[in-house]
Give the backbone structure.
Amino acid sequence: MQFIKNLVRDEEGATAIEYGLIAALIAIAAIVAMQGLGNQLSTTFKKVSTEMAKGN
């Protein structure tokens, strides 16, 4: 019975899970931001390539 009481009071596992969830959310936000930036860069390079091809 004492073991179960100790498990209920122990919060280290919950803290580790919370940190894991925070890290996962940060990773998802970074991936989304990088995808958006990648799309913008791709569009910019296509425009530059088109303009350089016109100049020849």
Observations:
- The two ends are 83 Å apart (CA to CA).
- Residues 1-55 form one domain.
